[in-house]
Design brief:
Layout lengths: L3 E5 L4 H5 L2 H10 L4 E7 L3 H4 L7 E5 L1 H10 L4 H12 L9 E4 L4 H10 L4 E6 L5 E4 L1 H9 L10 H9 L14 H12 L6 E6 L11 H12 L4 E6 L5 H13 L6 E3 L6 H8 L4 E4 L3 H8 L4 E4 L6 H4 L7 E5 L23 H11 L13 E8 L5 E7 L4 H19 L15 H29 L6 H22 L6 H10 L8 H25 L10
Parallel strand pairs: 1-2, 1-4, 2-3, 4-5, 7-8, 7-10, 8-9, 10-11, 11-12
Antiparallel strand pairs: 5-6, 12-13, 13-14
Length: 543
């Protein structure tokens, strides 16, 4: 009997498309595997275009969230409805349940369905939300040190849901009927030598380049090549598109425009983009659709978007990022100026588009502050981005490479094939100074945690002694945490430790004490491993 896997992914269209390499990786791990996926009803159509899925199961999770917010029904009855819907899934005997949605609702659903192998958010016996699988835990942590992350969400899904394996591209099914419709739809607007898809809007204005800049870019391209532009997006993005078109015409744009705003179904959008030779876009769901039908992408990466997390995956895509100290900003920030968008002049973006079409060189003058990256596949068969134009912070570049290898080795249990840098970290003196202060705190912390285990192992528990020990441990932990976050050499493992101290799977006092002791011991061990790797004389901490 083939293995059965259930994937829960109830977020956005782009997240669904980005999990297609996971589907291929599961097939590589378990040939003949049967994969079911749970999605929000809104994205049922796109889910049916993902290859390798047995059943697409949908529920109106958006309605559930809306009803809970306005309190139109009590929360218990809402969750009872979901439980009734999911009841049959509890008897399917899934060999693995993979939750790719990082919220409390999905954790409850995962815990309710159950499996001996759960990956992602679920619930502990006491109802607490916990995360299982080291890659899924990494995903939770990496947003606190985004500039150090070098893993695309596509690879985190595949590594966490399955494991290391051969490279698999993002891929969507396309139907001949939709491609025929697209060709007929395009022919009404003209017959240029090639079509460029353009996504001017975005679900969040923070991650959308300015509409007038799109218009200027399109005008510059049209003056160089025999092209046409396919304008795609939802009806709510129409005002931004109209602004771009107005700018395009004023700037002397001469190429035909094919307006597809709000006029396509998802399968028709797949067919339409498959007829394009290039796509110019913000970080959007349709960007991943283009990747899924093997269309090269030029991605304008602004606002809180970090292309290393969600940029176009695979080979021969291009990312343009402003060189600005505050970018990418945090998800919870609302920027008043959004000046990162003004760091990307349309002339340079048009030149990147021409280069992607094989019609020109990359711009070589980036004095205005921008970086250009080309997507690729690295030695570990994971996605990466190679800087082609511009400069990066040497400090973050060095640590980005260091942590990329560290986390691959740690979470996969293997050894990264990426070349190892022989160069010392740029802040070596600061690392040594931090380590000398941090190590005594970690030793004291581990001793206190071990004492907590001892106290909770005896009946009856000595409550006063337990409280005193816990108070001391929390004080030392606070000092160690604050110090660990002052250095890029220790920030990620510090974050991981304190996530572990809240990721408690044991409901009893002794079990929780053991989990805390294990987390602090892991933090200390990793700290020593890092200083050894960096060539620091760790014996200094013993004196």
């Amino acid at each position: 009997m083939p293995k059965q896997v259930l994937i829960i992914n109830i977020t956005r269209m782009g997240d669904l498309i980005q999990m297609t390499p996971l589907l291929k990786r599961l097939e590589y791990e378990w040939p003949g595997v049967a994969i079911d996926v749970i999605v929000d009803r809104e994205f049922c159509v796109i889910a049916k275009l993902l290859p390798g899925i047995r059943h697409v199961l949908s529920y109106d999770f958006q309605m559930l969230m809306d009803d809970a917010r306005v309190q139109s029904r009590d929360l218990v009855s809402l969750y009872q409805d979901v439980a009734e819907w999911a009841k049959t899934l509890t008897t399917n005997g899934y060999d693995r349940v993979i939750n790719l949605t990082f919220n409390r609702r999905s954790a409850y659903l995962t815990g309710y369905i159950g499996s001996s192998d759960i990956r992602g958010l679920t619930t502990a016996p006491d109802g607490n939300v916990i995360v299982k699988n080291s890659w899924m835990a990494y995903f939770l942590d990496m947003h606190t040190y985004r500039r150090l992350n070098r893993f695309n969400l596509v690879d985190i899904y595949a590594l966490g849901g399955s494991g290391p394996g051969p490279y698999a591209p993002v891929k969507l099914k396309r139907h001949d009927s939709d491609c025929e419709w697209a060709r007929a739809f395009l022919s009404v607007s003209g017959t240029p030598a090639c079509w460029i898809g353009v996504q001017i809007g975005a679900s969040d204005v923070m991650k959308a380049w300015r509409p007038e800049y799109f218009g200027h870019t399109m005008a510059l391209i049209s003056q160089q090549l025999n092209v046409g532009f396919v304008l795609i997006g939802s009806q709510k993005e129409l005002p931004a598109v109209q602004e771009a078109v107005q700018t395009y015409k004023k700037a002397g744009g001469v190429a035909p425009l094919c307006h597809a705003i709000g006029k396509t179904t998802i399968p028709q959008l797949v067919g339409l983009l498959s007829q394009c030779d290039l796509m110019l876009t913000n970080d959007t769901g349709p960007m991943h659709v283009a990747v899924g039908v093997e269309v090269p992408v030029v991605n304008v990466s602004v606002g809180h978007v970090d292309f290393r997390e969600t940029g176009p995956y695979g080979q021969k895509h291009w990312v343009i990022q402003p060189e600005i100290e505050c970018g990418p900003c945090g998800f919870d920030q609302v920027c008043a100026h959004q000046s990162c968008k003004d760091r990307l002049p349309p002339r340079y973006v048009s030149e990147v588009c021409l280069h992607a079409l094989g019609k020109g060189a990359l711009p070589d003058d980036c004095s205005l502050g921008m970086r250009i990256y080309e997507s690729a596949i690295d030695h570990d068969e994971l996605g990466t981005y190679q800087l082609r134009v511009g400069t990066e912070s040497h400090l973050y570049h060095w640590y980005g490479q260091f942590w990329r290898k560290f986390w691959f080795d740690t979470c996969s249990g293997g050894t990264s094939q990426l070349p190892i840098s022989n160069e010392n970290p740029p802040d070596l003196d600061h690392i040594e100074e931090t380590f000398l202060q941090l190590e005594p705190l970690l030793t004291a912390l581990c001793h206190s945690a071990d004492e907590m285990v001892t106290i909770t192992s005896h009946e009856p528990v000595a409550v006063d002694r337990l409280k005193a020990c816990q108070g001391h441990m929390n004080q030392v932990a606070h000092e160690a945490r604050k110090l660990g976050r002052t250095s890029l050499a220790f920030t990620p493992i510090t974050t991981a430790c304190f996530r572990d101290t809240h990721n408690l799977q044991q409901p009893d006092l002794r079990g929780m004490a053991r989990e805390h002791a294990r987390a602090y011991a892991t933090w200390q061990r990793r700290t020593w491993d890092i200083v050894r790797q960096l060539g620091i004389d760790h014996t200094l901490a013993l004196h």
